[in-house]
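Ticket #4471: structure output looks truncated?

Reporter: J.K.
Steps to reproduce: submitted the chain below (297 residues) through the standard prediction queue, then opened the result file.
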Amino acid sequence: MTMDGFPVYEGTVIRPPSEAGSLILQVTLGCSDNGCTFCPAYKDKTFRVKETTLLEREIELCSRAYPDTRRIFLADGDALALSQEKLKKILRLLKDRFPKLSRVSSYGSIKSLKDKSVEDLRELKGLGLGTVYLGFETGDGEVYRRIRKYGSPAGNVETCLKVKGAGIKVNVTLIAGLGGKKLSVQHALNSAKILNLSKPDQIAVLTLMIAPVTPLFEMEKNGAFEELDGFGIIRETKTLIENLEDFKCQFFANHASNYYPIAARFPRDKVKVLREIDLILSSGSPGLLTPDFMRGL
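Returned output as attached by the reporter:
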C-alpha cells in the first residue's frame, strides 16, 4: 500500500546514515537472522518477502510521485536474501521506472550472500546495485560468538572480497564497545586485522547502546557484561585506527550513537584524527564528548 505516493512501511525501518536522501523501499520485512544479542532492530516482525504485486504497485506509484529519484535503498535488513531472479526483476523495474536512477543499495550479510557467486553479483551490478552494507560488528572471534551473530569474522572478510570482486562498493559497519571492558582491546585489534584484509570502501563505526529489548541488556543487568564509558570508547577507537593499514577508504564515526564525530578519508587524515583523539583523552574533559542524552540509535 502507499499513501499519496509514499510507501506505507511496516514496523521499524533501519537505513544507513548515508542513505538519508534515498527513497527507501521495503522489499523484505525484518532480518533473516535477527538473533544478535545486541540488536534491537526488527524485533517487531518476522522475516518475510514482500508480496510481489504490492511491491510492484509501490514502485509504480513512487515513480509517479518522485520521477527524479536518483538513489534507492532496498530495505529491510536482508534484501539480498531474495533469489537472483527476483532481485534482477526488481532492479530492472527500478531502472525502467526511475530514468535518473544512479544507484541502488542494500544491506547484505554472509547469510544473504552465501549462495550468490561473483558472477551473480556482477549481474546485479550491471542492473544498478552499486553499494552493499555489511555488518562486520567485530573482528574478534570471542566477541563474535558472544553476540551470536551468524557466520564469523573470516566469513565476513570472504563476503566483502566477493562483493568487491564484482565491482560493487562495500561499506562495513563496526560497533565500538561491543566487547565491553573485558574484551575491548582484542575487539579493536582484531577488527583492524579483518579491515586490513578486506579493505572496504567505507568504514562506519557506531557505538554500542544497550536497548532493553535485547539479551545484552539482561547480561549487563546480571553483571555478565560491563559497558565502556565515553572515554573507553574513544580509547578503543584510537586503537582501531592506529592499527589500520594505509589503504584508501572513508572512515566515519559520526552516527548519532557516537561520543565524538569523525568524518575522514584514510590514510590522508589518519594522523590528524589521531591527534584530535589524543587531545580529547589527555584533557579528560567530559565536555568534549557528546552527552548521553543527545545520543541515540
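Triage note (M.O.): checked the attachment and the full C-alpha cell line is present. The chain has ten helices and twelve strands.
Status: closed, working as intended.
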